[in-house]
Amino acid sequence: MANLPPSLSIGAASFAAPSPPPPSPGASSSSSAAAAAAPGAAKDRKMASAEQLVLDLCDPELRENALLDLSKKREIFQDLAPLLWHSYGTIAALLQEIVSIYPSLSPPTLSPGASNRVCNALALLQCVASHSDTRIPFLNAHIPLYLYPFLNTTSKTRPFEYLRLTSLGVIGALVKVDDSEVIGFLLQTEIIPLCLRTMEMGSELSKTVATFIVQKILLDDVGLRYICATAERFFAVASVLSQMVQALADQPSPRLLKHIIRCYLRLSENSRACTALNSCLPNALKDGTLNNFLQDDHVTRRWLQQLLHNMTMAGMGGAPHGGLDHIMGM
Amino acid sequence: MIYAEFNCHYDLFMYYSSCHGLFISILFFQAYERGLMIAIIPFTSKILEPCQSSIAYRPPNPWTMGILSLLVEIYNLPNLKMNLKFDIEVLFKNLSVDMKDVKPSSLLKDRIRQIEGNPDFSNKDVSASQAPVVAEVSSGVMPTINHVEPQPEINSTSRATSLPNMLSQYAAPLRLPTNNMVEDDKSALIMPEQVSSLGLSQVSPSQTPSLSSSSFSLSQLIAAIPRADIYFRINEKLSSFGSLQYSKIMDMALDKAIKEIIGPVIQRSVTIASRTTKELILKDYAMEADDSAVSRSAHLMVGTLAGSLAHVTSKEPLRVALSSHLRSLIQGITNNTESTEQIMLILVNDNLDLGCALIETVATRKVGLYSLPLY
């Protein structure tokens, strides 16, 4: 794919008297007309419209339409993230979209239209969170913290569910690259209780993303030590994982089960946590109840076997079962 | 014989002078300090000029060379006037001594010379030393301007933002779902810990010195809230529970609840908003030369972000604290547990947003007191 032209250079004159941007429908029609002509020309026009849409984000009158168009095309533009981050006022406009719906979080009065609009803004922030050049500046500005109030909501209506899922998507994009700096930030800002809440009461999709985030945190050495540092933290995570396993009997989800088993396996690599798992690992994972979900998933089956093996080894060398219960304060 | 006699007299003069060599040195030091070298250098030049003809005192006589060393040191002083340099050069030429062959002395290094009105040196030195003073004055003026100007805008903006929000909230229909209470209690278990934890973890060492002044300012801000203008919503349903002083109860409970939770909420909101605003404003205004434009934008942004975060973050902790205080106050008046809960729920749901709006106002004003570390 062709690279975008150099970043927009907005001079002082542009601040004083910004030229009125052309209407989006016109741009769309010209873009679609050019598509019939030549593929190369179409790409150029799409690139040009990306810059124009980013400029439109600063104009409250044009912002909603620009948000919609950009979020649709975000996977086409490889370098959309640097364009968003380095252009004037764009990130501030996205933050404005986020804080403007805080009043409708409680009591829960978020409308589908408002939810869609802010989720388009969050989709653009997910691009910024994903890109290697903009991820760390995004984190340095503490922007994920403005999404935490969304994750703290409990309403089960569709607008709120969609809001939480999209917010989790931004966090998920941050943890995908296994950067210990990202994990450190998330631990310091108490993301885990928010993920656990979603794992308890979210939809299947939200649960899957939240569990994926917890999995990535556990896979980091600092994250694993953090969660296993106190019995309270460990059992908070273990009990939610256990609840999710029980719920799988009613709502099967191989994808979610895979993340759950990976979390358990990682926990078993910590000796104290592995010993504690002997008393709280769901029977469904031991007695083969869930084997039907794993018939075609050899990776997850190997994980489960490794998990059971780790626990067996810990059980042999560990203290008596009763004594263990006493030590862990159960 | 005449020549011999003259020469004898000069040597005699120099002999007497050398006995008082210290006198000449002291004379030079005083001249250097008081700006009188313009007199002493030509004088010395005339005295030493006949040395060339003297058998005893011609170079490399130690006494004569000592004076020449001092003259070389003077010659190398920065900004020495040209006429003095010229006199020294002529003297060396007349004595057939190359200045490069004479090692300069270091007798004047520790001596402080008078600067103002000193005729021995040119004006370059004086003008250079005055520049820092001018810079100091100009830098002193800017912070005052930056600090004073944005205040009114912030207040008007935050008030305008808060009022429609409060009105729209009150226009909403009254709702008392029982299930929400359970969920709210559940969420409350996590929120207070999260809030306080973030407050603690976000405090950096550089902020520690300002904590005491911060708490003082916080008390001032809370005291500044116009409580006389606060009007509590008292639902008509409450009249069926008896004629209680609901406004008074509400006022006491809200005051206690706000004081209980406002510290960590403000700390967290202001810290996060300041960090975000610093990063984004520095990025967006990297090419902006007008400091006041940068500062104005920064204050508007940080006020809005801090206020919004404080509002949304304080809602559940405030609900919990307010419920607790209301419950204890109402129980002191009525014995019916069931009616206590109903009264409490009505009062909380009707006035929670008012409490959050007050906290939002405090956060917005609070952040205005900080001087953002933008530079």
TrEMBL record, chain A:
Recorded family membership? Belongs to the CNOT9 family.
Q: Where is the composition biased (Low complexity)?
A: 26-41
What's a GO biological-process term for it?
mRNA catabolic process
| Protein name (database record) | Cell differentiation protein rcd1, putative, expressed
Quote the InterPro entries the UniProt record gives: ARM-like, ARM-type_fold, CNOT9
Q: Which residues form a coiled coil?
A: none
Q: Record's Gene3D superfamilies?
A: Leucine-rich Repeat Variant
Might you report a single GO cellular component term? CCR4-NOT core complex
Q: Where is this region: Disordered?
A: 13-41
- The organism's superkingdom is given as Eukaryota
Specify the taxonomic lineage. Answer: Eukaryota, Viridiplantae, Streptophyta, Embryophyta, Tracheophyta
From TrEMBL, chain B:
Report the transmembrane regions from the record. Answer: 12-32
Keyword annotations for this protein, in alphabetical order, are: Membrane, Transmembrane, Transmembrane helix
Where in this chain does the record put each CCR4-NOT transcription complex subunit 1 CAF1-binding domain? Answer: 26-114
Instruction: Tell me one GO biological process term.
Output: negative regulation of translation
Q: Source organism's superkingdom?
A: Eukaryota
The segment(s) forming the CCR4-NOT transcription complex subunit domain are 246-366
Q: Which GO terms describe its cellular component?
A: CCR4-NOT core complex
The cross-references to PANTHER family, in alphabetical order and at most eight, read: CCR4-NOT COMPLEX COMPONENT NOT1 C-TERMINAL DOMAIN-CONTAINING PROTEIN, CCR4-NOT TRANSCRIPTION COMPLEX
Q: What is this protein called?
A: Os10g0556600 protein
Organism name: Oryza sativa subsp. japonica
